[in-house]
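Reviewers asked in the last cycle whether our approach scales beyond single polypeptides. To address this, we selected a multi-component target totalling 434 residues and predicted its structure end to end. The input consisted of the following lines:
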Amino acid sequence: MALQTDRTTVRREPHRGAYDRDTIYGILDAGFVCHMGFVHDGHPFVIPTSYWRIDDDLYVHGSSASRLLRTLSPGAEVCVTVTHVDGLVLARSAFNHSVNYRSVVVLGKASLLASNEEKTAALHAFTERLAPGRWEEIRYPNERELKATSVLKLPLAEASAKVRVGPPEDDAEDYAVNCWAGVIPFETLSRPPIPDDRLREGIPTPNYATHYTGPRR
Amino acid sequence: MALQTDRTTVRREPHRGAYDRDTIYGILDAGFVCHMGFVHDGHPFVIPTSYWRIDDDLYVHGSSASRLLRTLSPGAEVCVTVTHVDGLVLARSAFNHSVNYRSVVVLGKASLLASNEEKTAALHAFTERLAPGRWEEIRYPNERELKATSVLKLPLAEASAKVRVGPPEDDAEDYAVNCWAGVIPFETLSRPPIPDDRLREGIPTPNYATHYTGPRR
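The resulting structure, written as structure tokens, was:
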């Protein structure tokens, strides 16, 4: 299935657009916080929320009582955007300053997972993606918590990636300008874990916390 | 003027909401990439774009030819959301897992800056915010470039912040669960600058690049 549609075609700087699943999934899997847009009473709203991917679907979850989830319940359209900011691109001209980034835009209709089994399986997958092995250690969601949690599934059927990498691209005559040019790279790192003050004695810090390698944004 | 309106009132976890300009401006000034939502043909769209604040207005810029800018030209409504992800909160129960974050949502109508003088002043302020001192070194935008650049101004009149900090909050009985709990903090750092391959000889790396202290996201 082609992820590129008229609506997801990158028009500005089209050479930065990509529509293959490898590129799109790679960008999605490098993070866990998206910005989800929806229309409520004709107005645009954008909220940050955590997400995860299972195969060809994107999942988000939230309180069943939230405005977002109540608005979206009947299969309303959403736009989910994920962005990683990789660097600041300092060119010789003001106009050619830019940002290095990787972003994905997904359009579609989200549907609610109906059964507790489906919800539990999706939350299991999310937990394992954030911290492999953790699901076996924690207290699982009970009936009341599952009822209070909505899980939305959005098919990865209409999407695009947009990526900028590399040095500044100045106009030919601007390379003579007497000005530093280059890239300031950014990197998001995890820091040493902070154990809860109320941690029971004798519980070692798990490897996934000491050496966090999961998605960071 | 009160930034809190019915639309910007935080309903989920209301104790995490804040509506004072100090909190909101602090979160905005810690970043430079926002997610801007708008409605086009009834559909929600969310695009990442850079932004900056001057006093009580938020600014974004882009190509005059972009879909975003063409859609928004007649003062259409937007939602601008800025999020900083500070940590992963690992609780003893699946349900109480969370994320530490600082986010701001701004609602309102954006208007286009009309004159080249206004545009140039706004772009000057943006450049200085990213890299103090740089504006004096670069080649300024010319007439053609200013025409190709749209700058949108969004009044900071209706907004809210939402912030989560601190350790996991487990249910009382879950503190007995035999499971590690705590926070994995994230931090976005700048790396040593990468000079452009075509940098002229004898140009030193400016201090703002070597010791980058500007907004990172």
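The mean pLDDT of chain A is 93. We regard this as preliminary and will revisit it once experimental data from Aim 1 are available.
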